[in-house]
Amino acid sequence: MEPPSILTLLTGLLLKIISLLTDDCDRKSFRSTCKVFHRVDSLHRTHLRVFRPEFLSLVAKIPSLDSHDLSDCPRIDDGTIPLLLSSIPSGSSSWAGKIKRLNLSRCTGLRFPGLQIVVGFFVNLESVDVSYCSGFGNREAASLSCLAGLRELNFNKRLYVTDVWIG
Q1: How far is CA 23 from the centre of its chain?
Q2: Which residue of 2, 62, 71, 78 could cross-link 114, Cys pair, CB 3.0 to 4.6 Å?
Q3: CATH classification at residue 105
Q4: Global pTM?
């Protein structure tokens, strides 16, 4: 159990303290100090980079998340997307509506069916990065064009995309 002095600190004060920490090492030390600090860090965190697809179900525990990076999970494909999204607890689907930026670069197995599921799940996306996704073509780009709020689409090194899907 944490000392009473830590429990009396307001969450707002702890959020101000954590916002002053600029170094990642300092932030890691802060959140590993105690459970209260870990909870405050999860309230403050807005960007998450997942290194293993199995940990995608943990993102529901971070309420202020607005940016999600799956670029370090190159094994994500059309078959794993439904499995990953179904592993998220049913009462926590509201976090998907808060995600504004999604980085899918280097997800080489992601094609049209998987992107359709992503578009249906993350309806408020404003920025999508599909750079270096092999096999990304007009059909996949057309599925992303269904996002009403899409402002930025990054697809560097995509040789199979033409301007047919625009419109």
Answers
A1: 21
A2: 78
A3: 3.80.10.10
A4: 0.73
The Cα angle at residue 52 between residues 48 and 161, in degrees rounded to 5: 80
Q: Which residues, listed in sequence order, are joined to residue 68 by a DSSP beta bridge? A: 48, 102
Whether 68 and 11 share a structural domain: no
Residue 14 φ/ψ, nearest 5 degrees: -65, -35
Cα(70)–Cα(49) distance, integer angstroms: 6
Is the confidence at residue 101, as pLDDT, over 90?
yes
CA distance 100 to 122: 8
Tokens matching residue 105: 């670069």
- The total number of structural domains in the chain stands at 2
Dist CA 128 CA 110 (whole Å)? 13
**8 Å CB contact between 97 and 64:** no
Structure tokens at 118: 């992503």
d(CA 124, CA 131): 20
- Cross-sheet strand order for the sheet of 101-103: 47-49, 67-69, 101-103, 127-129, 152-154
pLDDT of residue 2: 56
